[in-house]
């Protein structure tokens, strides 16, 4: 039977259902053309109740068990086997590769040139950044996420001890703030639309997330709130999220591990998808998953997204959905009164509508058939019957939440006046978490999340031009570093503390000025050795 995709969409729902029930196992040329490499396996519908009907039909789940399995089509990128999964930096560099780093370097230097008219004592000491400086800058952002200081200034205060002296030895406070001030991802002269500051960058990074890793069968779709309390027309309020105010992003992740696959920033109905037209939730979900059609993935969603039209579109793209649904959605049957623990299941065409009462009614709509009932033991050691499909939903729905949880552990939690910088920090965190997930799944070495970050940070910081010939924990001893006297007295960089005990000296290391943009005053040989050898 010769049937192409266009003709299939023109058919009635009943004809489409008949097509999928009768002709999936055919081997004629049209099927080979539409579903190359045997993407679609034969699916046999044994129960006549699943045929297209006008209404919902209640079934006896104790007698009619219909658990259909869908053969998952999986593959791996050709270069996957050549990756070194035991090196944190090599995994991270698959996302922030040379092209991404070079683009950040170019746009940061360009943005300073576009604002060169802003002349003051700080900007006059600007030095153009290079790729190694940007890599080290990213490492410092990740390092700052390990310490919860309320202000950026705290990272350069002596009162916090030597634990963060590596930041001091790499970059001065003035240099860091100057780079962060002119840090940029796009050319402002090409477009005045605020979304272009990060929209294109996010699209490029998310594409790399999908290229490097092919997910397993179960996927999770949910929204993410990127915390932001400043002023922005894109800011949203979500009372049920941990961060109530911020920027909303629609996210797709692998359900098992939390590996982030795609992320689209919500920038209003007309700007989110870049079409200049209003979009629907159905269009958003289809756009997020368009690279995973015709592979028999199972997609888990919550009630915000689930509707009959959405699940129907996904079904004909061979993505099978399981999700909670609101009782007032169009096309659903009326729900009778249920006693506690009672289960009712309805079928209509390829839909399964499950209602289970556990203190309150839980409604679930799916295109994956499973009417099995499982027995669970509660905390009070009492047995409870529960639909297996709801157990599946609880197990696989939280893929996006799992990724957000990893990001929250060691995130760079500093206030920003620019909304797009918050988005960039989230992109950096997600890329780091994705690297750690790949490391945990395929690497031979076993490291905790924090240990993985420390190894990644150590490599990133070593790229800084000043650190190339020295130890990562300090500047390194050198005959070129000698104490020189001056006429002025200044606070010792090591032992002076204005809040407790202040110590001033007229001796400084002249050579360190080239690396720190200021003289480093050191009161004695002991402070000199601590600073250069730590």
Note down, in words, how this protein is organized.
- It is a single chain.
- With 534 residues, the chain is α+β, with helices and mostly antiparallel strands.
- Among the domains are: 5-46, no CATH class; 84-187 and 422-467, no CATH class; 483-533, no CATH class.
- It is built from 17 helices and 15 strands.
- The chain has helices at residues 5-10, 13-22, 29-34, 88-92, 98-114, 131-144, 165-170, 173-182, 199-212, 281-288, 308-316, 388-396, 399-409, 419-442, 449-461, 513-516, 525-533, and strands at 57-59, 218-227, 235-237, 245-254, 260-265, 297-301, 319-324, 343-348, 351-358, 360-366, 373-377, 383-387, 483-491, 504-509, 520-521.
- The strands form three sheets. Strands 1, 2, 3, 4, 5, 6, 7, 8, 9 and 10 form a ten-stranded mixed beta sheet that branches. A three-stranded antiparallel beta sheet has the order 13-14-15, with no helix packed on it.
- Strand 9 (351-358) and strand 10 (360-366) form a beta hairpin.
- Helix 6 (131-144) packs antiparallel against helix 15 and helix 13 (399-409) packs across helix 14.
- The longest helix is centred in the last third of the chain and has 24 residues, at 419-442.
- The protein is elongated and about 95 Å long.
- The N and C termini lie far apart (76 Å).
- The model is unreliable at 1-53 and 465-479 (pLDDT under 50).
